[in-house]
Write a structure and sequence with these properties.
The protein is α/β, with parallel strands linked by helices. The chain has two domains: 145 residues, Aspartate Aminotransferase, domain 1 (Alpha-Beta Complex), CATH 3.90.1150; 273 residues, Aspartate Aminotransferase, domain 2 (3-Layer(aba) Sandwich). The strands form three sheets. Strands 4-10-9-8-7-5-6 form a seven-stranded mixed sheet, sandwiched between helices. Strands 1-2-3-13 form a four-stranded mixed sheet. The structure holds pyridoxal-5'-phosphate (PLP). Pyridoxal-5'-phosphate (PLP) binds next to helix 5.
Length: 444
C-alpha cells in the first residue's frame, strides 16, 4: 500500500483496505475475510453488498441526483419520511415530520436548535439548556459535544463547548449511587428531578438520552420504569424529551425504536447509522406533532439547513434498505438472532475477567474487569478493550472496543452489533473468536 494521504482517526496506526463486503463479511486487500460482528459501528443492519441498494441509488441518480430543499422536495425523501413516521409512536404518525441529515451528529445539532426554537416560538425564550447524562455520546460536532458527557472526548475541546449540566448515567452494573435495582427506587431517574429543581427549571429546554447506551457504556439497558420516569419528569417541567436512537433505532434492539419497548413517546427521535445501513450517509430527526405545530403555528420557518439535507440518493438508499428489512422480515429477526448471539457468548461468562454481558436485541456489550467480585476495572494504560479487539481480529472477527464506561477513563468493553442477517454459525464463530481472544490476552 502506498503511504496514506488520508487524515486517519489515528495517525500512529495503519489500517487495512476494505475492498468488498458480503453479508456479514468484509474482505480486505490481501483477501482476508473478517466477520463483521460490530456492523462496523452498529451501522450495517441488512448486511454488506446487497446489490439492490446500489441499484436503487443508481436509478435515483440517473433520475435526479440533487435538488436543493429551499426549492424542491423529492419523491424518495417524501416517501421515506412517511414510512419512518408510520413506524414511530402515535404522536409522530399524526402530524409529525422528518428532517433528514447526513448523519447522527447533524441530527443532534438539528435537535438542539429545534428544541430551542420550539421554546422561542411558544413564548418561553428563557429556555435554552439541554440537559444530558454523564458518560454519554451524542456526536462529534461542537453542539453535539456540549450535550455529550464523556469526559475523555470533551477534555481537549472543553473551552469550546458550553456546560449545560449533566445528570447521572443509568448504568446498573456500575451504579453511580452504589445501589441495586429495585431497592434503588430509580435514583438515577430521580437525579433528573433533583437537577431540574436545583438548577433553574425555567432555563431547561430539553433532555437528551440514549435509551440503551451503546458506544460509551457498552449496551447498558435501563431497568423497568426508568424511561417512563424521566419522560414524566420532562413533561411535568416543560422540558422536551429527545431520544437519541442513532444507534438503537431502525430495529437494532428488536423494535423500530428502542423507546417503544417501554411505551414512551419522546418529543423528538434521532436516527442515523441503520437508517441506510451504511450504504449512504443519512440521519434524521423525527419531530412529533407537538414540536411541528409549535413551529408551523408560529413563524413557520425553522432557522436551520444543510445543503445536503434530504438528499435524493441517500433517501433512495434509505427506502431500499427499509424495503429489504421489510421483505426479509429483519426487524422480527433481531430478537431470535440476538438470543443466538447471547447463547454463543454465554460460554464467556465464567471467564474471570468477563464482568458482564449485557444488551438488547443485536446491541450487545461485553465488559472486561480486573476483579469480578468487586467489578474493579483495569487501569486505562492496560488498553484491554483494544487488545481484545486486536486478538479477535486476528481470529477473523471484528468488534467495536471502547474504554471509559466506569468513569470516562477506566472501564473496558467491546460492542457487538452485527447485521440482522447473522446466522447461527456466524454467532458461534463470534463466541469462538472471543474465547480465543480472551485466552491470548489473559494467558493462564
Ligand atoms: C448515540 C449516538 N449519537 C450520535 C452519534 C453520532 O453519529 P455520527 O457519527 O453519524 O455523526 C453516534 C455515533 O456513534 C451515536 O452512537
Amino acid at each position: 500500500m502506498p503511504t496514506s494521504g488520508l487524515f486517519s482517526r489515528n495517525l500512529k496506526k495503519t489500517f487495512p483496505i476494505a475492498v468488498r463486503g458480503e453479508g456479514c463479511w468484509i474482505v480486505d486487500g490481501n483477501g482476508r475475510r473478517f466477520l463483521d460482528a460490530a456492523g462496523q459501528a452498529a451501522v450495517v443492519s441488512i448486511g454488506h453488498g446487497v446489490a439492490e441498494i446500489g441499484q436503487a441509488m443508481a436509478e435515483q441518480s440517473a433520475q435526479i441526483a440533487f435538488a436543493h430543499t429551499s426549492q424542491f422536495h423529492t419523491e424518495p425523501a417524501e416517501k421515506l419520511a412517511a414510512r419512518l413516521l408510520a413506524l414511530a409512536p402515535p404522536d409522530f404518525r399524526n402530524g409529525g415530520r422528518v428532517y433528514f441529515t447526513s448523519g447522527g451528529s447533524e441530527a443532534t445539532e438539528t435537535a438542539i436548535k429545534l428544541v430551542r426554537q420550539y421554546h422561542v416560538e411558544t413564548g418561553q425564550p428563557e429556555r435554552y439548556r439541554i440537559i444530558s447524562r454523564r458518560q454519554s455520546y451524542h456526536g462529534s460536532t461542537l453542539g453535539a459535544m456540549s450535550v455529550s458527557g464523556n469526559v475523555a472526548r470533551r477534555a481537549p475541546y472543553a473551552p469550546l463547548i458550553p456546560e449545560w449540566g449533566h445528570i447521572a448515567p443509568c448504568f446498573c452494573y456500575h451504579c453511580p449511587f452504589n445501589k441495586t435495582f429495585p431497592e434503588c427506587e430509580l435514583a438515577c431517574a430521580e437525579d433528573l428531578e433533583t437537577f431540574v429543581r436545583e438548577h433553574q427549571t425555567e432555563t431547561a429546554a430539553g433532555f437528551i438520552f440514549e435509551p440503551v447506551v451503546g458506544a460509551t457504556l457498552g449496551a447498558a439497558v435501563p431497568p423497568e420504569g426508568y424511561v417512563a420516569h424521566i419522560a414524566a419528569t420532562c413533561r411535568r417541567n416543560g422540558i422536551l424529551l429527545i431520544a437519541d436512537e442513532v444507534m438503537t433505532g431502525m430495529g437494532r434492539t428488536g423494535k423500530p425504536f428502542a423507546t417503544q419497548h417501554w411505551g414512551v413517546e419522546p418529543d423528538i427521535i434521532l436516527i442515523g447509522k441503520g437508517v441506510a445501513s451504511g450504504y449512504a450517509p443519512l440521519g434524521a430527526v423525527l419531530a412529533s406533532a407537538r414540536v411541528v405545530d409549535a413551529i408551523g403555528g408560529g413563524s413557520g420557518a425553522f432557522m436551520h439547513g444543510f445543503t445536503y439535507q434530504a438528499h435524493p440518493i441517500c433517501t433512495a438508499a434509505g427506502n431500499a434498505v427499509l424495503d429489504y428489512l421489510e421483505a426479509h422480515k429483519l426487524f422480527e429477526r433481531v430478537n431470535t438472532a440476538g438470543k443466538n448471539l447471547s447463547e454463543a457468548l454465554s460460554r464467556l461468562e465464567k471467564h474471570p475477567h468477563v464482568g458482564d454481558i449485557r444488551g438488547m436485541g443485536l446491541l450487545v456489550g461485553v465488559e472486561f474487569v480486573k476483579d469480578k467480585a468487586t467489578r474493579e476495572p483495569f487501569a486505562k494504560s492496560e488498553n484491554i478493550a483494544e487488545k481484545i479487539r486486536q486478538a479477535a481480529m486476528a481470529e477473523g472477527v471484528l468488534t467495536y472496543p471502547t474504554q471509559g464506561c466506569v468513569d470516562g477513563h477506566r472501564g473496558d468493553h467491546i460492542l457487538l452489533a452485527p447485521p440482522f442477517t447473522i446466522s447461527d454459525e456466524e454467532c458461534a464463530l463470534v463466541g469462538d473468536a472471543l474465547a480465543s481472544a480472551l485466552a491470548k490476552v489473559f494467558p493462564s
